[in-house]
Amino acid sequence: MDDRIQIESVLNNLVYALFAHGGQAETSGRPSDFGNMVVFDNPEAVDTIVKAPELFRKNFSLISALGFSRFNTNDQDWSVRRTITQDVYLAAAKPAQQHPVAEIFATCLSSSDATLPAIQQALFAASMTIFYRAFGLVPDMAATLLLLDRVRDVLRRLQ
Fold first, then answer.
1. How far apart are CA 103 and CA 157, in angstroms?
2. What is the spatial distance between Cα 152 and Cα 121, in angstroms, rounded to a whole number?
3. Does 132 share its domain with 149?
4. DSSP string, the chain
5. Residue 72 sits in the same domain as residue 116
6. What are phi and psi of 34, to 5 degrees?
7. 65 and 49 within one domain
8. What is the Cα Rg of the chain in Å?
9. Domains contained in the chain, number
10. Inter-axis angle of helices 116-134 and 98-110, to 10 degrees?
11. How many CB atoms lie within 10 A of CB 26?
12. Would you state the pLDDT for residue 107?
């Protein structure tokens, strides 16, 4: 088995296992061991952890190979980056955005073939369209999808 197929298999199996874990009985907010990971699936516990930078230390060296962002920095670096984007993210998450978001997903999926790669690409295109629009940008989806296919390949190799 070549490296790319093996990496894809490991990542897919992790997603499948996490998805299956999500259907298990309530854990009363306690974390559960999942291989060498600790999984928190109680919304209140997760909210507390991710909103406390001293508890939620990020180590995304793989993603950092592409540059720094609020998602892979800590402390003051994180605070500065958060200030730049937080208002836009909060506005995009308001209930008033549910209908426009649903329309974007419906449009992308209705023009998609019924194959797994096409559905994945349609979901990704919808997500990126929503992200771009939140910042007032007009996406060039073909160029974005091509770029991200290349980035995905680089990330697989760095994994």
1. 35
2. 13
3. yes
4. --HHHHHHHHHHHHHHHHHHHHTSPP-TT--EEETTEEE---HHHHHHHHT-TTT-----HHHHTT---TTS--HHHHHHHHHHHHHHHHHHTSGGGHHHHHHHHHHHHHTS-SSHHHHHHHHHHHHHHHHHHHTT----HHHHHHHHHHHHHHHHHH-
5. no
6. -140, 90
7. no
8. 18
9. 3
10. 150
11. 8
12. 95
The β-bridge partners of 34 are 37
Residue 112 domain boundaries: 94-159
- What torsion do the CA atoms of 103, 104, 105, 109 make, to the nearest 10 degrees? 100
98's tokens = 């549910």
Q: Tens of pLDDT along the chain (159 residues)?
A: 677 777 778 777 777 777 777 666 665 656 666 667 777 777 788 888 878 877 777 666 666 777 888 778 888 888 898 888 888 888 888 899 999 999 999 999 999 999 988 898 899 899 999 989 998 998 898 898 888 888 877 777 765
* Whether the Cβ atoms of residue 84 and residue 69 lie closer than 8 Å to each other: no
What are the phi and psi torsion angles at 32 (to 5°)?
A: -120, 145
